[in-house]
Amino acid sequence: MSDANLIPVLPAVTAFLGREHGLFIDGRTVPAQSGDRQAVYGPATGEVIAHVADGDAGDVDRAVQSAHAAFRSGAWTGLRPAERERILLRFADVVEAHAEALAQLETLNQGKSINLSRMIEVGASIEYMRYMAGWATKIEGQTLDVSIPVPPGTRYTAYTRREPVGVVAGIVPWNFPLMIAIWKVLPALACGCTVVIKPSQETPLTALYLAGLAAEAGVPPGVFNVVTGRGSRAGDALTRHPRVSKISFTGSTAVGKQVATAAIDNLARFALELGGKNPMVVLADADVDQVVQGALLGGFLNQGQVCAAASRLYVQRRRYDAVVEALGAAVAGLSVGPGLDPGAQINALVSAKQQQSVGRYLEIGRAEGARVVAGGRVLDRPGYFVEPTLLAGMRQDMTLVREEVFGPVLVALPFDDVDEVVRMANDSPYGLTASVWTNDLKAAMNLVPRIEAGTVWVNSHVPVDPNLPFGGYKQSGIGREFGRSAIEAYTEIKSVCIAH
Ligand code: NAD
User: Fold this and answer.
1) How far is the CA of 253 from the centre of ligand 1 (A)?
2) What spatial distance separates the first Cα and last Cα of the chain, rounded to whole Å?
3) Does residue 331 lie within any of the structural domains?
4) Is the beta carbon of 354 within 6 A of some atom in ligand 1?
5) Cα of 256 from ligand 1 centre, angstroms
6) Tens digit of pLDDT for each residue in 360-404?
7) Based on the domain organization, do 283 and 250 belong to the same domain?
8) Which atom of ligand 1 is nearest to the CA of 262?
9) How would you classify residue 145: left for phi > 0, otherwise alpha for psi between -120 and 50, otherwise beta?
10) Which family does it belong to (predicted)?
């Protein structure tokens, strides 16, 4: 792959990478108290591209105290909803003005295709920002009839109001660093909360850039803070801080359980968006070409580093060989290259650690008897590349059918009848998403309620929308993001009862 295929990096991006990055607390950039710093790597090359501050518990305390003071001051919470909405819409405009810089930065730091960064990480996030800004003026309660009999002759009028929950801790993973930060910040701010974001240590750059843009748009100091650092240090301290009222965590199920335990200690509210091992169920009448396109998108978008990704492909036996053969050819034909090359369809994984982890899973798959239909190798070249892989000959008890690989690896299994595939699809501790592929409406409508997942697509896999609740059943999480559910997640209900 020659550099001639790479898009030119904007001077503003090069300048941002070279900055002396700090933490973003109380509306400005400050160094970590310890002075500790951490290198940030570019997955396409494996080289260091920036350094950021490695925050600790003291830094987290500064950020939370700032968010708490901003919350109490009313500088944000006390604004008229229309003013909050206007500032958030301006925030979206400022992000749009910096769209290309943000997209390039994400591709350089996360590895994903520049097309994906432009379209989803930034483009879809701007739409989400505007959608959530609109909620600031649409938060509502209820009036309720009550029957309180005392004192005799007294009448009551009762109503509920939704009030911002307080300081929100947003803990963000590395797969969609900008988008998932925005998923947390915008509804929290629309509700009048203040926020401390802890990005993943692998991908801290766009959250820092975003915080600067929020300030430029007029979000007051202390309302949106960012502490970069390790999960075991800054992340842990944030989840334990007594002034945090709500924790919104997206990441692995194992860490999510630790976060929930810490939250319970303070009785902080929490929402967990965790892992998935999502089934794609293909009935015999489905269109093979449509299934192949759907599996490429659902299974290999962002190199499969998508919590909602299709990772178990169940095909009704009559069509199994045809689907595996066509999909195998399509997967083998995907071009591999750096994210800055818009023609490269499969890009580097986020880190050397993730590359090793996927490589280990591929070895386990082979050792357990999987048949490699396409790909199957960690690539011996600079950067963290793994071939897009389709494995067949799988059994339900194999490791790669049970565990989340979080890489470009799809496993295929045949099934005979619908009852059998329902059992197989639900035979997982996870329950984030699923898809059903058929042109038989009755069959689809019968399957949808039987699948244990927070989202079920029919003839599609992976698109999300700001208005459609998103979250997991079982060990894929607790709570829902997006839509009205997001507003409910960042507010408390206050009941007001007036005697007259
Ligand atoms: P991770 O759990 O390792 O890390 C997520 C975040 O938690 C990071 O910011 C990390 O620094 C922080 N963290 C780590 N240890 C912590 C601790 N003890 N206390 C507090 N914070 C801590 O996950 P990851 O590897 O960054 O992301 C991949 C995982 O995220 C996958 O399992 C994937 O399925 C899941 N994910 C889920 C969704 C969803 O919406 N359900 C979306 C994206 C990713």
Assistant:
1) 8
2) 78
3) yes
4) no
5) 7
6) 999 999 999 999 999 999 999 999 999 999 999 999 999 999 999
7) no
8) 19
9) beta
10) Belongs to the aldehyde dehydrogenase family.
pLDDT on residue 403: 98
Model-level pTM? 0.97
Kindly give the interhelix angle for 288-300 and 317-332, rounded to the nearest 10 degrees.
60
Same domain, 286 and 149: no
Closest by Cα among 497, 493, 498 to 161? 493
User: Catalytic site residue 273?
Assistant: yes
Residues 59 and 208 in one domain: yes
pLDDT on residue 435:
98
Whether residue 198 lies inside any domain: the answer is: yes
Between β-strands 143-144 and 156-164, what pairing exists: parallel, antiparallel or unpaired?
Answer: antiparallel
Nearest to 50 by CA among 234, 214, 203: 203
Query: Cα of 224 to ligand 1 centre, how many Å?
Result: 20
What pLDDT is recorded for position 3? 75
Question: Hey, which of 125, 174, 206, 270 would you mutate to test ligand 1's pocket, going by the most ligand atoms within 8 Å of its Cβ?
Answer: 174
User: Does residue 255's CB lie within 6 angstroms of at least one atom of ligand 1?
Assistant: yes
Q: What is the pLDDT at residue 2?
A: 58
Which pLDDT belongs to residue 276? Answer: 98
Residue numbers in the chain where pLDDT is lower than 50:
1
Residue-by-residue DSSP string for 457-473: EES--S---TTS-B--E
Burial class (CB in 10 A: 0-12, 13-18, 19+), 47: exposed
Residue 175 CB–ligand 1 contact under 6 Å: yes
Residue 4 pLDDT: 80
Ligand 1 centroid to residue 157 C-alpha, Å: 45
* Residue 28 is assigned to a structural domain of this protein: yes
- Do 248 and 138 have their domain in common? yes
278: its two tokens:
């999502």
The reply to whether ligand 1 has any atom less than 6 angstroms from the CB of 17 is no
In angstroms, the Cα distances linking 394 to 304, 378, 438 are 19, 20, 23
| Rounded Cα distance, 65 and 403, in Å | 39
Domain coverage including residue 296 = 278-465
181 and 324 share one domain? no
